[in-house]
């Protein structure tokens, strides 16, 4: 056996291990979601069975699950859009304005992410209750954005730092003001940063559970909380939980794949020598 | 009316002043080159004209309007950057369109201008390419094209040739000169390359440490340098500088002596410390017996084809002489030289200013 072949086998073996570790939960979710309830916990597990869609049917029949998915989408997309807008503008300012306290400002923004969520759940609850925002998507959009904006600021600052100043100067001489330059020149060149930020913001908002549980009721409940409601004191309806989990997986995957086409390197190549 | 006027223009970064009261008048259609070593304030001055740097003091006018507080976009200038600064996410055509968009022209006019410019600069084939797919020379031409399509009142060039190789530099230099003749637009051009300055400029502005040393035509700055700095900066190889004293109507230096040329009579005082400047080409080989002949040791000989450079030692002084190639000598030999008295320059050693006027 040649050295090359041995190396390849080792690499593929490692890949296989990684793949198994990552894919097993997904396999369990998918298979359990279509497994008839009676054989759900059979030992050894049944690999071959006639799939059933009863759990999916129950999911939508017993609960307004479509509405919860919509809530999740509104909250996740809303927070992502809001965070990207505010975050990239803030990042641009931090990247471009020369001021001796600018690093402190940047650190202060980052520190927003350092508090443990559980510590602020109750204050948030009280604030939103008095503001009349409990059980509204807006409350979750605000809460998620407080976590997403710092992340976006820090990611985007790095990307803006890479955009050559000369390009903005060229645009200024060519007749563009500050915002137009930002919109037509700087932001397009930081598109990969925007894509990365969008993925992180969306996934965080889409998956979030604690705040969604505490701050929403029947109206603004998100899919993650809804799925857990099948876990009650008298029964855990695993089939429905798995069916719900599988549905929850899908938008995230679609979103990441959509953003992926922007995740390219070397966008600014060829601009300045 | 002047196209650009600088009146006592100053630039400060905090407490550090980098441009000290520059006065300059640029006429309509004139090609003016700001020339100087790095850090002399020439690029800062250009950037102030472009509006990319604030003016800390003085008055800057373009087309008769004071523009100290006018945004770059409203100054009617176009700029070619040292690193080209092409928009990498746009094709060549889009780069030019983008520069035209603020002018709000109709589509036919936009296309006409782009096609005309592309024809002049030979960019026709490249219009659909992106900057990353272009060579250095092509990028340079696109950068010029992007500035040209706007038909601005003033062109600003910031060392546009410094990123090109030697051959391409000569070619593009020639193209820039031709373009200026054709378009007749006012040009302010920054470079540290004296060849670019001498070949392109109607007027050269030599800067040093944030001060203007001399303003003049290329011929004036070459033949009548106002200071030792200009004298040594312009011309290649550099002018030889010999420190001397005026003693009894002679210029006396250590191991070196010559009569004070008549034209300096009355302009110097007995005992004054002066600097004699003589261009390498004005040092001639002479016979040992001729008047004013000085003995010189040849230390290095550089053969350049038509001519040769001789590095000479005369007493403690090191001089460079440029002689026809067939008059060159081996290093280590001793020859006799004389300075062309009619071509020497005299400067006050303390102030560095010329004594020729």
The CATH architecture term of the largest domain in chain B is: 3-Layer(aba) Sandwich
Q: Report the total helices of chain B.
A: 8
Classification by helices and strands of chain A: mainly alpha
Strand order of the largest sheet of chain B: 6-7-8-3-9-10
| Biggest sheet record of chain B | 6 strands, mixed
The total domain count of chain A is 1
* Through-space gap between termini of chain B: 30 Å
What order do the SSEs of chain A take from the amino end to the carboxyl end, as H and E? HHHHHHHHHHHH
Global shape of chain A: globular
**Low-pLDDT segments of chain A:** none
List the quaternary state of the chains: heterodimer
How large is the share of residues in beta strands of chain B? Answer: 35-45%
Total strand count of chain B, please?
Answer: 20
The CATH superfamily of the largest domain in chain B appears as P-loop containing nucleotide triphosphate hydrolases
CATH H level of chain A: which superfamily?
Answer: MetI-like
Strand content of chain A: under 5%
Helix content of chain B: 10-25%
What is the CATH domain class of chain A?
Answer: Mainly Alpha
Could you explain how this protein is built, in words?
The complex is a heterodimer of chains A (273) and B (357). Chain A has 273 residues and is mainly α. Chain A has a single domain, classed as MetI-like fold. Helix content of chain A is 71%, strand content 0%. In chain A, helix 1 packs across helix 12, helix 2 packs across helix 12 and helix 6 runs antiparallel to helix 9. Chain B is of the alpha+beta class and 357 residues long. Chain B has two domains: 232 residues, P-loop containing nucleotide triphosphate hydrolases (Rossmann fold, 3-Layer(aba) Sandwich); 109 residues, Nucleic acid-binding proteins (OB fold (Dihydrolipoamide Acetyltransferase, E2P)), CATH 2.40.50. In chain B, the strands form four sheets. In chain B, strands 6-7-8-3-9-10 form a six-stranded mixed beta sheet, with helices on both faces. Chain B is elongated. The mean pLDDT of chain B is 93. The interface between A and B is medium-sized, with 24 and 33 residues.
